[in-house]
Amino acid sequence: MLDVKWIRENPAALDEALRRRGLAPLGDQVQALDQKRRAAQTEAQTVQAEHNKLSKEIGIAKSKGQDAAPILAKVGELKAKQAALEEAMKAADAELETFLAVVPNAPAADVPFGKSEHDNEIKRRSGPIAKPEFEPKQHFELGEALGLMDFEQAGIISGARFTILKGALARLERALAQFMLDLHTTEFGYTEVSPPLLVRDKALYGTANLPKFAEDLFRTTNDFWLIPTAEVPLTNLAAGKLFDEKQLPQRFTAHTACFRSEAGAAGKDTRGMLRQHQFYKVELVSIAHPDQSEEEHERMTKCAEAVLDRLELPYRTVLLCTGDMGFASKKTYDIEVWLPGQGMYREISSCSNCGDFQARRMDARFRPAGQKGTRYVHTLNGSGIAVGRALIAVLENYQRADGSIAVPQALRPYMGGMKAIGADE
Predict the structure, then answer these.
(1) Which among 376, 358, 359 is positioned nearest to 367, based on CA atoms?
(2) Are 95 and 33 in contact (CB under 8 A)?
(3) 193: phi then psi, degrees, rounded to nearest 5
(4) Topology at the third CATH level for domain 4-100
(5) CB 260, CB 277: distance < 8 Å
(6) How far apart are CA 305 and CA 100, in angstroms?
(7) Which of 154, 208, 266, 408 is in the most buried spot, having the most CB atoms within 10 Å?
(8) Mapped to the 3 state alphabet, what secondary structure does the chain carry?
(9) In this predicted structure, what is the pLDDT of residue 45?
């Protein structure tokens, strides 16, 4: 959620931020709601001051033996008025908060202006793309031919956008997750967490998934939500907390199942594992000092890139433009892996700096050393990386002409020394 004080003092800056995102200006509306709230607050304070003054006069009148009834009657009227004003304040606060809850974060100054993914800025590439001497197949063709990837039976059990992995492919998926967790915890200083997969409204509100993106989520009949990513429980580890400055940054990682309705994905990636209702991901979350969040963002992105470097998968890193970035993000890097079966790059990780946008929603603060008062932390999140898409990338980049799949060197210790899937090695 954006800072009301910042909007009050810089309404034009809000409108400019929204313009860069391709949205209509809202500065005047926010100011009007803020003025309504502050007017109710001011009037309530005036009534409270008058009430306090009259309360003293009652004591003086009684001490002098005077009739205090007229003053008591007026105090009663003020109490009723004050109660009404307090309700008006609550209503105005709620109205402003509801309005701001669907206003996106302001893009950072160095985020390029653009309307779509075609305007994103390529920052770096991992190296040359190998050209196989045969026509590469897509992952679902490879998996089905091996008899280890079953979409038909998954459809009978659960419907579209589900997959069953068997044997060596199921083990390869597990190996990828274990490899990522080991890398992030032993080399990059992240603390592994096993979080809940079911969360309440408040947790999703804190990460800005609610109220705007409810249709993208799965909800249970008893008012829990299935997490769309471990970003939700991991970021909420800071919810309502007051940290000492020396405790920052805090870095967390988790391997979890993720659940998304893919409500807006009709007709997109209907074949294969690229866009599923249930998938697995290793998530990275940082709770950082505001002065260090930009540096932390670069660090997190490098940690995600390191996974692909170790797996020797070709990729590129792009800075998302204002028209392609997420609602809660102020700056996002996407890492896109090369898929030879598709002949194109596809997103495999998205690393975002949300600034204090989420922290304001979940009241996550820290106390600066040697200073009075508190400040909001900055929150960052990223895929470190999407396990299913990493599996796809390994299948397509390590495929052989005979349909077998070489196992990347980094994964062989997790595969019992297996060198290839679908070959006698």
Answers:
(1) 376
(2) yes
(3) -130, 140
(4) Helix Hairpins (1.10.287)
(5) yes
(6) 34
(7) 208
(8) CCCHHHHHHCHHHHHHHHHHCCCCCCHHHHHHHHHHHHHHHHHHHHHHHHHHHHHHHHHHHHHCCCCCHHHHHHHHHHHHHHHHHHHHHHHHHHHHHHHHCCCCCCCCCCCCCCCCHHHCEEEEECCCCCCCCCCCCCHHHHHHHHCCEEHHHHHHHCCCCCCEECHHHHHHHHHHHHHHHHHHHHCCCCEECCCCCEECHHHHHHCCCCCCCHHHCEECCCCCEECCCCHHHHHHHHCCCEEEHHHCCEEEEEEEEEECCCCCCCCCCCCCCCCCCEEEEEEEEEEECHHHHHHHHHHHHHHHHHHHHHHCCCEEEEECCCCCCCCCCCEEEEEEEEECCCCEEEEEEEEEECCCHHHHHHCCEEECCCCCCCEECEEEEEEEEEHHHHHHHHHHHCECCCCCEECCHHHHHHHCCCCEECCCC
(9) 79
CA distances 344 to 314, 321, 335, 417, Å, are 11, 20, 13, 31
Q: Which residues are catalytic?
A: 260, 275, 347, 350, 389
Contact of 359 with 160, CB cutoff 8 Å: no
Higher pLDDT, 56 or 13: 13
The reply to whether domains 4-100 and 117-421 share a CATH topology is no
Across 296-315, b (16+ Cβ under 10 Å) vs e yields: bbebbbebbbbbbebbebbb
Burial of residue 424 (CB within 10 Å: 0-12, 13-18, 19+) is: exposed
pLDDT digits (tens, 9 = 90+) for 357-408: 999 999 999 999 988 999 999 999 999 999 999 999 999 999 999 999 999 9
CATH number of 117-421: 3.30.930.10
- pTM to 2 decimal places: 0.91
Q: What is the tens place of the pLDDT at every residue in 292-312?
A: 999 999 999 999 999 999 999
Considering Cα of 35, then 37, then 38, then 40, what sign does the dihedral take? positive
Spell out the domain ranges in the chain: 4-100, 117-421
CB-based contact 327:210 (threshold 8 Å): no
Q: List, in sequence order, every residue forming a beta bridge with 198; answer none if it has no partner.
A: 226
